[in-house]
Amino acid sequence: MERLIRQGKLPYFSSSEIEFSRLGIGFEKLDRDVFDPNKAYDKVSKIGVKKIRIQSGWMKTEKVKGVYDFSWLDTIVDNLISRGMQPWLCLCYGNPLYTKLAESVFGAVGCPPVESREETDAWLRYVEATVKHFKGKISLYEIWNEPDCMYSWKHFGEAKENIDRERNACEYGILASETAQIIRKADAEAKIAAFGLGHIANLKWVNDALSTGLYKYIDYVTFHVYSSTDARRGRKIASLRDLVNSYNPNIKLIQGESGAQTRSDGHGAMKGFAWSREKQTKYLLRTLICDLHEGVEFTSYFSTMDMIEALTGKVGNKASYLDYGYFGVISAEFDEDGRATGDYTEKPSYYALSALSSLLKGNACAEAIPYAIEDLPSRRVNGNDCSDRDIQVYNFKLDDGSKAMIYWKKADILTETYEGTATFCVYGQKNDNIQICDLKDGTLYDLPEGMVEDLGNGGVRFKNIPITDSPLAILFK
């Protein structure tokens, strides 16, 4: 990038300064009290994201049968809203008051209320009370979290090798259908999302659940993606959309959880992989850009904080839930109970998400920009430019009407680092005010005269410009 002419940075906007955005972040697990939200509210609002995913915590709210104490959740919701963010609520997990399995599971994670009618009715009463309580503050409710995963839809006494996934899908579809109808009754204006799908490629599971009639009652299907490669991400999203469209083309998609860690010793998704802060930053940018270009309603990064995973813990066995995950854009220390403590410090990914939020705020959407990639000699690399087959390009129309061509080398995130050159011929764009933005931190650069050639008739060649495996954006202002 040293050949370019540095011109400052993108202006960053806080959540309160952005009216609308299709970018969000996770603020989950506060039902298990894993971090101090008071130390995170301001930091999250400065990123500029709008959609904030939180979890409801049935067992934390209903500790006495029929008595609902929302005070802990009120504080979270009100703090987020006051800073210009829009919380959406995942209704999830069990309650030991009604479900025997939940008595031994930390946070009642993955204990669905389906063993008896008493459990199900108690769940529906809780959902109705929750939606009525937050009417006017929360407008989107998600039903459960990753019910297609073993940890999140369990039956008492059932061994892993005996799990009946088809049964679970049908159980989920029936419970979610009843839940959706209760939500609609409690707040006719609320939007309803189903699944929080743990495995986007698990189309049979989705089909089995939708076939119960669930598709009649929902507005969105939410999905999660945890994969070290983004190579097939767009295709998987398109396949899920095709399936959902076969039931109801009015149902839209939301990417509700996707992230990478900053350490290889973390627990949770993709544990043991050679993650670093640099790789997390590239993963965040590349995957969220793909989601937005694929036209999801919005996409959410997981997560705000480094924190314990707390998915398979056992009550009374602290060691079982001291399983630290490092997915956060903010790092922390941990106390003896696994709670994120100490100074909450921004990681490089924090600034990358801030830059992306500023650039793609508002109604930024996919846009056709005619271009061709040339393979020219490049002294910079003592060879030739990066070839067409190795370059990923996503084009956007920005909220102010300007255009952005976002590009990177399709290097493997875990094993490769790349810095080279590329040549683009672009047509039909304004060519009098062009800059390159490094989305890792929002730095803006002008291009020296030798990198820009007027091709006439509205064409311009960007010759031997920088390309890396982290997204850069050509901005046509």
List the helices and strands and how they pair.
Elements: E1 5-9, E2 23-26, H1 41-47, E3 51-55, H2 58-61, H3 71-82, E4 86-91, H4 117-133, E5 140-143, H5 165-186, E6 191-197, H6 203-210, E7 220-224, H7 233-247, E8 252-257, H8 277-293, E9 299-301, E10 307-308, E11 324-325, E12 330-334, E13 340-346, H9 348-359, E14 365-366, E15 371-374, E16 377-378, E17 383-384, E18 391-397, E19 403-409, E20 419-427, E21 434-438, E22 443-446, E23 452-456, E24 459-468, E25 472-476
Parallel strand pairs: 2-3, 2-9, 3-4, 4-5, 5-6, 6-7, 7-8
Antiparallel strand pairs: 1-22, 10-11, 12-13, 14-18, 15-20, 16-17, 18-19, 19-25, 20-24, 21-22, 21-25, 23-24
Helix pairs in contact: 4-5, 5-6, 6-7, 8-9
Share of helical residues: 10-25%
How large, in whole angstroms, is the Cα Rg?
A: 23 Å
Instruction: Report the biggest beta sheet as strand number plus sense, adding barrel if it closes.
Output: 8 strands, parallel
Spans of 5+ residues with little confidence (pLDDT < 50)?
none
> What is the percentage of strand-forming residues?
25-35%
| CA-CA gap between termini | 20 Å
Instruction: Strand order, main sheet: write it out.
Output: 8-7-6-5-4-3-2-9
Find the count of extended strands (DSSP E, 2+ residues).
Answer: 25
Tally of helical runs: 9
Supply the helix-strand structural class.
alpha/beta
Can you walk me through this structure?
It is a single chain. The protein is an alpha/beta fold and 477 residues long. It has nine helices and 25 strands. The longest helix is centred in the middle third of the chain and has 22 residues, at 165-186. The radius of gyration is 23 Å and the shape is elongated. The mean pLDDT is 97.
